[in-house]
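The instructor's notes for this session suggest beginning with a concrete chain rather than abstract definitions. Hand out the sequence below and ask the class to guess, before any prediction is shown, which regions might be ordered.
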Amino acid sequence: KSFVSLAADEKSSISLSICPLVQGDLEILGVRGKLAGGVWVFHPFQIKGPLLQNNRHNKSNRVRGEPMLLKSKIESEMPTLDVELERRDIGVESLDGASLQGQITSWTIRLNNMGTAPATNITMKTNLPWFAIIPSETTKEAEATSQCVGPTGTLMKLDSPSLGVLHPGQSMEFPAHLRTSYGGRQELYMLFRYELQEDATGKGSKKHRWLQ
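After discussion, reveal the predicted structure:
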């Protein structure tokens, strides 16, 4: 319990935390409290949903959809990936991290599983086709394979032959090359998708998460 004393016309911010104990759908309706130790009051949260743009009627009348900010789905343990991108050749033919046009730079992608369940089937989508995962130094040339999926060169599957599955607390590193194709400031976007490893029964649909 927390006790807060407010004078007339005074405002105060209060932070609340929620710890779900069971699985299912969770919706926060409002906050309930007691005034002066004797009068119970309830304040409902009124959150506006997003403006719908799916048809002309909704656009002209500014119709709003259902707000999802205070709704959550409590599920079982899930993996949570954290991605680090580190440049390996800083100081070599570079100036303050900049690259020359046509230059190939070396990077390391490090995946950390900060969750409580194993992660598998990790894929990465980029907005530039000049980003390539390279084989490790221990991989023989005859055994090297491409990480790309499909013809675009922007979708790659991140698999580790030694680990296979990224368990909680584990990390995986992938060396990569990035070629600067034209001048000016460029932005590199990455979208990761990973799945929860299935149990021994293999029942139920695969649960996945996204990381940008």
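Then share the key points. The CA atoms of residues 52 and 64 lie 5 Å apart. The chain has a mean pLDDT of 80.
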